Amino acid sequence: MKTLKIAVLVSGNGSNLQVLIDQMQAGKLPIDIVAVISNKADAYALTRAKNANIPAFVIDKNEQGKTYKRAEFERLALDVLKPLGVDLVVLAGFMKILTPLFINGVKDELNAPMINLHPSLLPAYKGLDTHERVLQSGERYHGCSVHLVTAELDAGQLLSQAVLEVHPNDMPATLQNRVHALEHQLLPRTIDFIVRGVIDVDNVGDAYRFWGQ
């Protein structure tokens, strides 16, 4: 079975990255994380990468201390990724909206798909503050989704979803924690399905869906 070379883009704590690292190191997930890129110099995900001897790159501020403009960040990130032979780009807690420059660059220059992990049952609740919005709307169900990245925010083809029932006593924080635990199951399972050909990113059928707690 082929080992998939993946790059992970992060902005924060990196708990989903850690799940991928743990499963990779345990031999449970046939991947090789060849790069972790962050737009935040203080992202703890960078420490997780360094602890696992994974090349970690910060694209945050230029030599003058000014934050890179969006196009500058995207061009630099592509320059990092191009020599690595990446098979898949994963957005895991990456809190920066990408433009067609990067999205098309991954497709055309890297010849690789790009997936994003989003904390809602898309197409519902795109964007931010999904847990608060779900509770305000009185939804019975919530969860997380993995989808292909396109120029339209959170609108790419769905690959997989994990679903849970909203509890009557759920608050935004408790619901977030429960969905976060689902993310730790959904992301590695989806990548494993991509590696094994269960999910064909070039010919996607119905999204794979499973129930959580």
Automatic annotation (TrEMBL):
Database matches in HAMAP family: PurN (MF_01930)
Single GO MF annotation: phosphoribosylglycinamide formyltransferase activity
Pathway participation: Purine metabolism; IMP biosynthesis via de novo pathway; N(2)-formyl-N(1)-(5-phospho-D-ribosyl)glycinamide from N(1)-(5-phospho-D-ribosyl)glycinamide (10-formyl THF route): step 1/1
Superkingdom assignment: Bacteria
Enzyme active site: H118
Raises pKa of active site His, annotated site positions: D154
Keywords: Purine biosynthesis, Transferase
Any Pfam family hit: Formyl_trans_N
GO biological process assignments: 'de novo' IMP biosynthetic process
SUPFAM superfamilies: Formyltransferase (SSF53328)
UniProt: (6R)-10-formyltetrahydrofolate binding residues: R70, M95, K96, I97, L98, N116
UniProt keyword annotation of Cytoplasm present: no
Reactions accelerated catalytically: N(1)-(5-phospho-beta-D-ribosyl)glycinamide + (6R)-10-formyltetrahydrofolate = N(2)-formyl-N(1)-(5-phospho-beta-D-ribosyl)glycinamide + (6S)-5,6,7,8-tetrahydrofolate + H(+)
Function per UniProt: Catalyzes the transfer of a formyl group from 10-formyltetrahydrofolate to 5-phospho-ribosyl-glycinamide (GAR), producing 5-phospho-ribosyl-N-formylglycinamide (FGAR) and tetrahydrofolate.
Entry's EC annotation: 2.1.2.2
Family affiliation: Belongs to the GART family.
Species of the source: Moraxella lacunata
Residue ranges constituting the Formyl transferase N-terminal domain according to the UniProt record: 5-191
Gene assigned in the entry: purN
Stated name of the protein: Phosphoribosylglycinamide formyltransferase
GO CC annotation, single: cytosol
Residues noted as binding N(1)-(5-phospho-beta-D-ribosyl)glycinamide in the record, renumbered to the chain: G14, S15, N16
